[in-house]
Design brief:
The chain has about 210 residues and is mostly beta strands. The chain has one helix and 13 strands. β11 and β12 form a beta hairpin. The longest helix has 13 residues. The mean pLDDT is about 85.
């Protein structure tokens, strides 16, 4: 099926009666390769077996959407739905990155020639490729393309430890600097954890 390799438990899915209706966030808790999704949460009030629903979710930078049919409703110990999905779906590349407005405390290590300098930072927003951070103190001589290491908790609580990054832009102010950083992507588990967070949660931040 088209969704092989795209799903993981906890992936966020928006479900509505029709494409034009307002959606409710549900989560995928299982699937079957014959074409079935198992979702937790109730798509809408008074949903019944046989009803058609419209679903959409993001995986690996692609928005997937399709109509599906409720095949079974399980009530206990929690409510979940089995949806039959079609063999073909609509796909749309997500060209603009999702950004999460954050207020997250973390640390940054500057890789200086003579010694490493550790300082506290405030993440103001985060995206799959980088972050905007606020730094106070020893930051007046930060430069573009400088290599740094940052650590911070994701909004879901998972800790990102010692993620390599590079400074891409700097706005220096009187007592602080606003710095745009780009994460290093080469086979890095910490970076994979960031991608997993956005694939599970986007586009449900608003």
């Amino acid at each position: 099926m088209w969704f092989n390799g795209l799903l993981n438990v906890g992936l966020g899915v928006l479900v509505s009666k029709r494409e034009e209706d307002s959606s409710k966030k549900c989560e995928i808790i299982g699937w079957h390769t014959n074409g079935y999704f198992i979702i937790s949460g109730e798509p809408y009030n008074e949903a019944e077996v046989g009803n058609n629903v419209y679903i959409k979710f993001i995986s690996k930078g692609i928005l997937y959407s399709c109509n599906a049919t409720i095949k079974f409703i399980h009530e206990e110990p929690f409510k979940c739905f089995i949806l039959e999905v079609p063999e073909e779906v609509t796909t749309f590349p997500i060209r603009k990155e999702t950004r999460f407005d954050a207020y997250i405390l973390g640390t940054m290590i500057r890789l200086m020639n003579d010694k490493n300098v550790r300082m506290n930072i405030l993440l103001k927003d985060i995206s799959p490729s980088g972050a905007l951070i606020e730094v106070r103190g020893v930051c007046r001589n930060c430069v573009v393309n400088e290599k740094i290491i940052i650590s911070f908790p994701l909004p879901d609580g998972k800790m990102i430890s010692e993620l390599p990054a590079e400074i891409r832009n700097i706005r220096k102010q009187e007592d602080k600097a606003i710095i745009g950083v780009q994460f290093k992507r080469n086979n890095n588990k910490e970076y994979d954890d960031i991608l997993d967070f956005f694939e599970k949660e986007a586009p449900f931040f608003a």
